[in-house]
Design a protein that fits this description.
Blueprint (H helix, E strand, L loop, with lengths): L14 E7 L9 H11 L4 E5 L5 H7 L1 H18 L2 E7 L12 H23 L6 E4 L6 H5 L1 H25 L3 E5 L11 H17 L7 E6 L16 H7 L4 E6 L24 H11 L4 E6 L8 H24 L2 E3 L4 E4 L1
Parallel strand pairs: 1-2, 1-8, 2-3, 3-4, 4-5, 5-6, 6-7, 7-8
Antiparallel strand pairs: 1-10, 9-10
Length: 345
């Protein structure tokens, strides 16, 4: 069990922070109620906060003061009930992409990511150890990606926008930004090669501007796997990603999936035979290959929304999945502290 102490320790060195992505509550519960469920009903000590898709950007653009008040209140409530906001993550994709062919849409995309950084800043002000803010890099429409000249231009827009965000992250005091590994070449990075190239440019920019930027790290998503027509088997194996990016992967979005990476499944008895992600094997590989100072292991299961039966099933699946992940952590040699932090013994 995790402590309900008001002290929000930031001493996460060489540990696993096991938490839940709260997108399961989007369109169903308020952010406060979602956090209460995560803490009191699902037993999590740490949460990854996401954007409120309907209101976040309009409020960020129209009334920055009200936006900050809204997220400060969320942070204070989380503090009160004893759940720590460890990271933030943004869910916008195609229509608000930093790599959209429309300059106006790119501007909206940039504001969505600035908003998720400001969320992180608000939670830090409320006393949380929020160290990273993350998102997918950007999405290109298929027709835009197939146009090689346009693809190059749009990807450059995205890279330049992320460099601006690296500066904003430094102003806030974050440890870094996180970019999520995806499943298709038009949403980079989807392959190891794409990730090497992208992180290489970001790392060089940070080395040249160490005092005014933060580095960019990688989120590995176990439910994302590039199709065979776009990548290799190596691009579909988490162990190969871990070996290639031992110090760059600071977060894992954890879920089960099928052999074609088409499904988002829980870690439950029903999907044990069909699913290809074994939680113990993944944790064991992370333990053996990843070398970063801490690892955020975030259970990410949005579930079916808009029907009572689906919303209840989502909570049941998260609860059972979390228990199985905790058993896997224990089997891999980790033990949980009173603050819900897992350390090797």
């Amino acid at each position: 069990m995790c402590s309900r102490s008001n002290h929000l320790s930031s001493n996460y060195e060489r540990n696993i922070i096991f938490g839940v992505n709260v997108n399961f509550g989007n369109f169903v519960y308020s952010p406060q109620e979602t956090l209460r469920i995560a803490r009191e009903e699902l037993g999590f000590c740490h949460a990854e906060m996401v954007s409120d898709i309907a209101t976040n950007v309009p409020l960020f653009i129209s009334d920055r003061q009200e936006f900050e008040k809204f997220h400060l209140q969320i942070g204070e409530y989380a503090h009160k009930i004893g759940i720590k906001i460890a990271t933030t993550f943004n869910f916008y994709r195609d229509n608000y992409s930093l790599t959209h062919s429309s300059a106006q849409f790119r501007e909206v995309g940039l504001n969505t990511l600035k908003a998720i950084l400001l969320q992180a800043e608000c939670y830090r002000k409320a006393g949380h150890p929020t160290k990273y803010a993350g998102a997918s890099f950007g999405s290109l429409y298929k027709e835009d990606y197939l146009n090689k000249e346009l693809r190059k231009q749009l990807l450059r827009y995205g890279m330049d926008a992320w460099k601006e965000l690296m500066q904003e992250g430094a102003r806030i005091g974050l440890s870094g930004l996180t970019v999520e590994h995806m499943s298709t070449l038009r949403e980079p990075p989807a392959t190891i090669e794409q990730a090497v190239e992208m992180l290489g440019e970001f790392n060089q920019y940070h080395r040249l501007n160490p005092d005014s930027t933060v580095p960019v790290f990688l989120i590995y998503d176990t439910g994302h796997g590039v199709s065979e027509t776009e990548g290799s088997q190596s691009d579909r194996r988490f162990s190969d990603w871990f070996k290639t990016f031992p110090a760059d992967i600071v977060e894992i979005h954890l879920k089960n999936t099928d052999q074609d990476f088409q499904s988002t499944w829980p870690f439950t008895k029903k999907y044990r035979k069909e699913g290809i992600i074994d939680e113990f094997a993944l944790i064991e590989a992370a333990r053996d290959y990843l070398q970063g100072p801490e690892l955020y292991l975030i259970l990410e299961m949005g579930g079916k929304k808009g029907r009572e039966i689906g919303e209840k099933a989502t909570l049941t699946n998260i609860l059972e999945s979390a228990e199985n992940v905790r058993k896997a952590l224990d089997k891999a040699g980790y033990r949980q502290s009173k603050e819900g932090i897992w350390s090797l013994q």
